[in-house]
Write a structure and sequence with these properties.
There is one protein chain. By secondary structure, this protein is mostly helical. It has a single domain, classed as dinb family like domain (Four Helix Bundle (Hemerythrin (Met), subunit A), Up-down Bundle), CATH 1.20.120.450. Helix content is 57%, strand content 4%. It has 8 helices and 2 strands.
């Protein structure tokens, strides 16, 4: 896959999630989400943290062990939307740097091309955008192009996600289900 379409999808996914982060009302941060162990704040902290990981891994060539617990705990502070904006901007800049997507990054599961890391993050941000929309009662319809992109990303490893302990078992996809329902079912979510 060419870099420009991936970067465009990455930008669109970040904008989707960011719009929802900025829509969270002050009294919604402790609301539950479809991620059973996470509140809205926990979910936003998780996805924001994923963005903060990108520059050290992609730009600086650090490993997960090198970063250690620098990015553990609460990254949102008193300004969750501002933290998201900083994290998203840093991730976007790191992936968009000349040659960045051709680099190899050292992830927890081993060496990976930055392009693959970027596509994995796109799918994760898209699905968590749905989770966040559900958590705050916003419109949870996802952009069709991001849904199709995410299905293609997740399909090759969907069966093993539940074994990681981070996802529920895939759900049965109802006959005639739309793409968003299929994507969510792959990840154990009922749309």
């Amino acid at each position: 896959m060419a870099a420009d379409p991936v970067l465009a999808q990455h930008s669109e996914a970040l904008a989707l999630f960011g719009g929802l982060v900025h829509a969270v009302a002050d009294d919604q941060w402790d609301r539950p989400t479809p991620c059973t162990d996470w509140t809205v704040r926990d979910l936003v902290n998780h996805v924001t943290g994923e963005q903060f990981w990108v520059p050290p891994l992609v730009t600086e060539g650090r490993t997960v062990a090198d970063v250690g617990d620098e990015l553990a705990g609460d990254l949102l502070g008193d300004d969750p939307a501002g933290a998201w904006d900083r994290g998203a901007a840093g991730a976007a800049a790191a992936f968009a740097a000349p040659g960045a997507l051709e680099r190899t990054v050292q992830l927890s599961y081993g060496p990976t091309r930055a392009m693959a890391y970027c596509t994995e993050l796109i799918a994760d941000v898209v699905v968590h955008a749905w989770d966040l929309a559900r958590g705050i009662g916003a419109d949870d319809r996802l952009p069709p192009d991001l849904v199709e992109f995410s299905i293609k990303e997740v399909m090759p490893y969907a069966d093993g996600l539940a074994a990681s302990g981070m996802y529920a078992e895939p759900l049965e996809v109802p006959p005639g289900a739309d793409a968003q329902t299929r994507l969510l079912a792959l990840l154990g979510r009922k749309g």
